[in-house]
Amino acid sequence: MKNILEVKDLHISFHTFAGEVQAIRGVNFELKKGETLAIVGESGSGKSVTTKAIMRLLPPGNSEIKQGEILFDGKDLAKLNDRQMQKVRGKDISMIFQDPMTSLNPTMTVGKQIMEPLIKHQNMSQSAAKERVIQLLKLVGIPNPDQRFKQYPHQFSGGMRQRVVIAIALACNPKVLIADEPTTALDVTIQAQILELMKDLQKKIDTSIIFITHDLGVVANVADRVAVMYGGKIVEIGTVDEIFYNPQHPYTWGLISSMPSLDAKDEELYAIPGTPPNLLNPPKGDAFAPRNEYAMQIDLEEQPPMFKVSDTHFAATWLLHPDAPKVEPPAAVLKRMKQFNRAKK
Amino acid sequence: METKEKLLEIKNLKQYFNAGKPNEVKAIDGVSFDIYKGETLGLVGESGCGKSTTGRTIIRLYDATDGEVIFKGENVHGKKSKKELMKFNRSMQMIFQDPYASLNPKMMVSDVIAEGIDIHGLAKNKKDRMERVYQLLETVGLNREHANRYPHEFSGGQRQRIGIARALAVQPEFIIADEPISALDVSIQAQVVNLLKQLQREKGLTYLFIAHDLSMVKYISDRIGVMYFGKLVELAPADELYANPMHPYTKSLLSAIPLPDPDFERTRKRHSYDPASHKYSADEDVRMREVNPGHFVYCSEKEYQQLKAASKS
User: Fold this and answer.
1) Beta-carbon contacts below 8 Å between A and B
2) I need a labelling partner for A25 at 20 to 30 A (CA). Which of A256, B46, B56, B292 fits?
């Protein structure tokens, strides 16, 4: 399948009073046409910064793309100026933000806000744009679009507002849609509706989606492929089945075993000890090593490269080195691996 | 169940905001349940269903519009002398949702934790007070050096531990945990949940655990109550509720939780809930009825017979 977006060796730093925070330290991935790539990781792992860099939405004063390329349609987005970027943003690549309460303009009617990209990018007339907006409102499942068009965001519930945000993002049929925790602020029942809507729309207009979340349940629901981020790097990437049923990185093991399964009860939950690294002074070796019970001497000294597990599955852990000792993953992970191997046979 | 001691009885609790005005909100509309000593009762529901209000009303952060909260045989609400209030406040504590907002940024951690100790005069002298603080910090997995720091120096998970230490400081019997983990990262959530479980084992605490993350609720709770628009619609032992949900709202809620299992997600069937589907007539007596032992459902007499018949077959 064709790659629509390629991120190559991206490094991003923030300049703060305390010093340089190396938020992204060499991120590589590609996004294929029509697929959903989920990026998971805890707060501060760099998932939002990566996508904001793609949209070029990082604050201009104190952030800096130190090196790397963001290739979209043969163009390097990292090198575009503001004017050129405005032509891409909202048209070819658009974004859905986490909080629908703050991402809409409270002083503008909902209709006007959805019309904006249409008029700006597609030179539509007011009346044509209005017609298209009503279509979009129908598409995202908002009843009575004619009346809703004239209403303000405060007249909408949280779930409905997120539908409006999705309508704005989809107005110009973008090639890439970035969804930054689009359902975290919503209730489970509303979340399920929004996820269904996004999957449905993806089929209709064939966009590629980058989906950021820390909820592994949501990942299992929407993703084709999954990238796990930790300490400003991707530590494991693979298809959704590979990540959930055959994970290789100890951090992924930790994430998966710290979720209670619905049949577990009295056994203690696995908790990843410690806290995420401070990227003001990133550790010399593997950033996860201090929290990793499987860490070896080399983890403290040298950062692991990406080891290939299969054609689609890569993980950055020294455990995959041919000379590494064999270790037993946690019980919850072993159970999943067995299931995976059985399914393969 | 019968042998267990009731720690808390909530009877027909009502909390109306703006009562009597046009914008009256019935946040809790006649909720009754019991909490037994040593158990964890989970309370789930979507935002705005009244689960947090229930917790806050029980602990008297709000004055109830109607109904009774009976703690160890004594009504919590109603007129109380200062002394009675003090005694009550010691036995019931709360852990809040947002550890960034619930700790006073201008107070040192030792003072945050010791505030309850000071108010209730539990420490004999300064040394004893600090000794207690150190012990509490160690209980929740922090260390004594943390006592002289300020809340902003801690991560979310550590702050929530401080919140737990503060709640434990007055040696309560009953703790209301209002979404204590929803502001935390996944890897940290497990740490806090394990801590809460461990404290329960060691100190025989009773919890009311309010949350919307259903898989965590199932993990920590013995029984679970489901709320919908100010009413309790189902109450059952945790396993029973998941294995055999009866109220259509519970079914829809359970069918909406995404599980970290791609195979399962591919075949998921979601139910939606329409409150109009019950078609209750105006004179029908709709209330909580015990369909299976310990399994209560909010239903009419007719629905009760149907559920009963269905659960037998």
Assistant:
1) 107
2) A256
